[in-house]
Structure formats: C-alpha cells, structure tokens
Amino acid sequence: MSAPAPVSRPVLSLALAEMMEDTRAQAGAMYLLAADPPVLEMAVMAGLPRVFAAPWERVTPHAGVPVADALRERRLIWIAGEEEMARRYPRVAVVLPYPFAMAALPVATGSAAYGAVFLTWPGSHPAQLSARDRDRLTAACRRLAGRLERACRAGLPVRPEPDLPAAPTVDGLPGTLGSVEAVRMVARLPYGLCSLDLDGRVGFVNAAAAGLLGVPAGRLLGTRLWSAVPWLNDPVYEDRYRAALLSQRGTSFVALRPPGDWLSFRLYPSRTGLSVRVGRARAAAGDAPAAPPAAGAPSRLVTVSHMVSLTGALAQAVGVRDVVQLVADEIAPTVGAQALIVLGSQAGRMRVLGHRGYPDPRVLEPFEGMPLTERTPGTHALRKGTPVFLESLAELHRRYPVRQTTPDGFAAWAFLPLIASGRPVGTCVLAYAAPHVFTEDERAVLTSLAGLVAQALDRAQLYDAKHRLAHGLQAALLPHTLPALPGLEAAARYLPATRGMDIGGDFYDLVPTGGGAAAAVIGDVQGHNVTAAGLMGQVRTAVRAYTAVGRAPEEVMRRTNRLLIDLGTELFASCLYLRIEPGGGRAVLSRAGHPPPLLRRPDGQVRVLDLAGGPLLGIDAAASYPATEVELAPGTLLALYTDGLVESPGVDLDDALAGLGRRLARAGGLPLDELADLLVRDEAGAEERADDIALLLLRVRGA
User: Fold this and answer.
1) pTM of the prediction?
2) Which runs of E-coded beta strand occur in 35-182?
3) Nearest CA to 273 among 312, 233, 224?
4) Which pLDDT score, from 0 to 100, does residue 654 have?
C-alpha cells in the first residue's frame, strides 16, 4: 500500500503569512517536530534569508533557544531586544547581535506537540508585545495545531514547504512615473545606486555604482554583491547587510577598493530588500578623508572568528580561575581592553573572583567586601543585571561620584552583568587605557559575549564549591599526621584523581598498639565519588576498632570483609594490613586483593613480597585472609601503595613494579619525606591522573 499523500495546501506557509500580516512582523519561521529522534526542523521561513537562521535549522527540544523553550514550556516566549536576548540566549545574541524583537510560540494541543514558530520585528518595536498581538498569535498557533492534529489522524503528513518570497519591489507607488523612466532618471544621477533583494543579490545597479565598484553592471546583476566584488568579500561588510535587514535601520561602512580608494556604502533597508548608495569616502565625509576602521576596534569578523573558539573553550573551563584566564586571553584583546576584573557576590558583599592587567592589585581592594548597596557601577551591574558603559573618567565621576576616591589608572570601562538562568552570577569589568566610545554594535557584542561567560562562570563556581567540599571531606577522612613511634619512621602521600570531584576511596593509616608496636593499613575502595569516600571512612574506622581490641591481622581482615557485605553497598575494596614490632624485628601481614608491598633491605636490595591473601573485601562472606610473617632488620624499608602508583594505560604491571623497585633501591637512603616526594613526583605533575594514589613508607630504625 502506498504512503498517504501529503497535505496539498501550503498549511504552514499560509499560517505563517497570516501571523506576520496580523502582527506586522518582519520575518518568521515555522518548525515541525520530528519524533525519532525528537528534533525541531525548520519547515518554512519568510521575510529573511534562511541563512540568517542556519545555526538553528535543526534544534533539539532541550536546546537553549527560544523556539525550543516555547515548545518545552508550552508558552509564548517574548524577547524585547538585543540586551534581553544577550541575557537569556547569549549564543543566539552572539551570532545575531542586532536590535530586533522576537516572539516564539508552541504549536501544540493539550495532548500532543507538533512544532513551534518564531517571528521577529525591527528594534523599533515597543518593549512589550501588545495583548492583541499575543491573543492573535496564540489563537493562530492553536488553530494550526488543530489542523496538524486532524492531518495526523487522517494519515496525511505535513512536510516542509518552500520559503515565502519577498513582497513585490514596488508597492502602491504613484503611477505618474513609469518604471522605464524611473530607471533612466536613476542612471543619470552622479552617485552610485544599487538595489539588493533579501538574499543580497543585485537587482539593479546604475552606471555610477558599477564604475565605482570597478565591475561591469552585467556581471553584478543577479549576484550577491560581496561575491561579485572580490574586495567586498569580507564578513564585516556582509554583517552590515544583515544588521540593516534585521534592525530595519540604515547602516553604513567604509571599504578600501585596491589599491588606495576608500568608498562609503550607505544601506537603506525595507521589508523587501535594501537600497545602497555608493560614493567616495571623501565626498561622504566632507573635506576629510574617511579613516579605516580602527585596528583594535571590535568587528563582526573578530567576534565571529573568536566566538566559536571561545564557546568551545568556555565549555571546557573547569574552575573560576580558568574562566578568568579565558576572558583575559580571548575577549579582552578582541575588544581592545587593557585590563579586566571578574566580580561575584557573597552574603550581600562584592568579591573579586579574578583580575588581569592591574600592575598594582591594591587598587582593587575597595571592590573586595564592598556592600552591594553602595552606588558604584560594579554593584549596579551585579545587582540590577544591566550593563554600564563609561566612556571617560569625567562620565564616571559625573554618574558615580563615590568612585572619585578609588581611581584605578584607566580611562573607560564596560561593566557587563553576567547572568545565567535569569539571575546575576557576577560582573565582568573591562578597562581601557584611553577614553573609548562604545558603539551600539560594540555594546551588543559585549553584552552577548558576557552571556556566554556567565554560563561558564556559573558552572565554574559550582565546580569550585564541589571541589572545596571534596577536599574537605577527603582531609577529614585521612589522618592529618602520622604518629611518632619509637623505632619506626613513617611518611605518607595522597594524590586524588584529576577527573571527577578530586575525591576517592584510597586510604592509609598508622595506629599505635602499645609496647612500641603499631598497625598499618592501606586500601582502595572502588570508585571516585562521595559514596566511595564515605565507605572508605567506614572501612578505616572498622580497622582501627578491630586493632584497638587486639585482633590478629587475619581476623581484622575477615571482620572488615563481613562489615562491607553487611552494609550492602555493592562496592569492593582492596586492603593490606600489617602488625609491625620494630623492636622484635618482624611484621605480620594480611592481604585482600591489594598490590604486594615492596621491601628494601639495609643493603639496598629490593624485592616484591609474595604474600598469601584472599579476595577483595565485600565479595565472599566466607573468605579467609591468611597472614604472612616477615623479618625486619634495622634499616629495612616497607613501601605500601595503591594501584594508581603503578598502573597506567599501555604499561605492563610487572614493568611498572620493577621501575618502582629500582627507584626505591637508588633513593631508599633518603629521609622518608624526600623519598615519598620522589616516588610520587611524576604522578603529582601529571595533568591527567585517572586513579587516586596513596603511599605509606615505613622504615625500621637502627639500634
């Protein structure tokens, strides 16, 4: 049986056109929800080239973009302008940092979702969407959802439709001037004129424009201007075209026609395309020649090229220090700033989270601990969530007189609120050595980039909090110091894994048992998380308790094994336990699936102790853990360690043990603290450490 024929009428295009006409929207797009995998696919677009929305032609329902939020939350999402877009959807704002408003709505019934729609208006639109327009859009989406539901029940699929063409170029003009005569009149004008459609293609060009551009009119017609004119093939110039179309405001730029002629371009947009006036820059600017754009000034070329790398780098930033470093390396040089500060808040007071570019950090001391109630640009941005741009020292003194007493040596500042999930998480302060004029485009780009930084900072602060918690927990579960025992030297080291929360299940302990004897234990609970650390604490406590009541090594292991099974944690642990009597010259050891210790004799010879033992703790309730007695002459050294010290991907375990033995043989005469540092030095400096490392060294003193 053949598949049902698709719906013949252009349902989506008609619905979108109706919404745009009813609300006088400039552009819009309709999305359909695909089921497997769930994804919103753009089905039709109108009013703007589809390339404008290319990054969002396919988005998941959980993506952080307006149409996905509208569908997921089943409500109308309204973004009043570029600042609100930068705060709520920074990734959208970075790509499209222009003044425009947007509404996104779900296309859904009470029981099923079918898609979503967005519409845009120029930046001149009122800050609020009128109740009339809200009602009309909501009703239109409800009607469309009903049509799609009926089509679905009837087995008639609704598929993507061709994008809607632009309206006719001439709309309602008086008919007193014929089109042929209009072309003749424009051709006679002494300055260059051309017309671009919504896709940037040249529909008309007069002789003066063709002469200035240096390209025959026949080669310009029907082509995109920046493609037909090689020296205009620059994202900076194409961006001006995008800005004009989206904002519906006139824009301009100056471009160099090789070898040395500067031309000015003025773009006049409408809903059907753009009219472009081309002239020599000197004529456009009076007697003074037009200056090229400043080398340090931010441009869309710089912003777009950095945006991709910045977004990826921020996604990998771990802590607050990483975020500050990325802002210093990626954003500050791009926008020409000479210094920066990242501010946060705690208990109603400001905190300096990081800074760069201040030779004397003491000038930042007033920020640290400043109450958020103070009237300063930093507190204003952090408390209100709105940016503050100060173009000169005089403007700073005029708007914030209190700052006259705290100069930092700079002459202009941008205080950018860092807003994540709708709440301020900090402020990024960019400082400039000279007075700086913040253009409208630059303010939009800075605000958008601040949104990306805010999301990274929010994650980084959470990571740092977890990191502090993990270190505090680990420190509480491991011994702060090792006891001083007669006849015995001891040293220990612990290195957490570099992945996860820097917390794990490796542990060690040294417990006096009276009469100059001691018990030592080292172990490794499976996992690198809070559960493993908590179980490690229970195991260490149990070993201490069984040691305190005088249990033999094999009995300590057997009872600890039973405890793990009774706890029902489904985690296993390796363990090595020994009783050592330095005065008696012997040690009794019991092992549960743990790497064998190394013994260094006084003559420097090292051997691996081949101990009998049992399985990992927590596996077999009936397991036994036989003990082995080892003689210890004065000067003998025992090295107890966890597998993180000797196990590495691609390295044979026997080879790793042999290498550890050679280092122990060469350096075994060093003081124990120096020896411990030497044995873990390579791992301590590693950027990636997949497992925890614990090391416990015991040396029998000579007589």
Assistant:
1) 0.53
2) 39-46, 58-59, 77-79, 100-108, 113-122
3) 224
4) 83
